[in-house]
Structures are given as structure tokens and as C-alpha cells.
Amino acid sequence: MKITLSKPITYKNEALTELDLDLDALTGQDLIDIENSFSAMGKTVQLFSQGYFAAIAAKAAHLPQEVIKSLPVKDFMKITNNVIFFLNDTVSEISQLTNSDA
Questions:
Q1: Nearest to 71 by CA among 22, 1, 16, 2
Q2: What share of the chain is helix, strand, coil (3-state, %, to 5)?
Q3: How far apart are CA 85 and CA 88, in angstroms?
Q4: Under DSSP, is residue 6 helix (H, G, I), strand (E, B) or coil?
Q5: What proportion of the chain, given as a percentage, has pLDDT over 90?
């Protein structure tokens, strides 16, 4: 999913006007790796925190977390909300499949 930024950012001397969040390509191991990186920094993983959603977005966009965290709040919220919606849709789909098997 491509997210158009409200204003370009520079990363590695390249102006980025959009970020491509490939959330469908993420694996369970990716989420575990994110949790482990939080633990290694002495941080408690809060599954419903902006920091966690930013880390997932960074992984999906193949960018350092600092790039996501440095975005203007409008873009940051657009990106993290897309992660939230994606995760909620995934949980909803699993719930529907589980309930239809009953």
C-alpha cells in the first residue's frame, strides 16, 4: 500500500514523496523480531502503542524506525493508522473464519 506524504522527506539523499508499506509481506517472525528489539532496549512492548505501530510500519517500508518517527504528525498518524487498520482487519478475518467453523 502506497502512502502519499504531505511533504517530501529526504532519506539517503533521495526525496521520498510516498512510502510503500508492504504489510502483507510481514511475517510472524517480523513481529517477534520487533518485540525482541524493544526488549533488547529495555523497553516493554506495548502492543497498542504508537511506537509499536511505527516499528511495524518501518519494517513494512524497509526503513529505519527513525524515518517513520521523524515524519510530520499528519503523515505519522496516517501511516500508523494504516498499520492499525491492517492488523484489525487481519484479526477480524481470523475471528470470522474461527466462528464460521463452529
A1: 16
A2: 60, 15, 25
A3: 5
A4: strand
A5: 71
Measure the CA–CA gap between 85 and 26, rounded to whole angstroms. Answer: 15
Q: Measured between alpha carbons, how far is 63 from 74 in angstroms, rounded to an integer? A: 18
Let me know: does 26 contact 56? Beta carbons within 8 Å: yes
pLDDT score at 91: 60
Residue with cell string 526488549 = 39
Residues β-bridged to residue 84: none
Q: Rounded to an integer, what distance in angstroms lies between the CA atom of residue 47 and that of residue 102?
A: 28
Mean pLDDT of the chain: 89
d(CA 47, CA 31): 10
Q: What is the pLDDT of residues 50-85, one digit of tens each?
A: 999 999 999 999 999 999 999 999 999 999 999 999
- Mean pLDDT across the stretch 91-100? 61
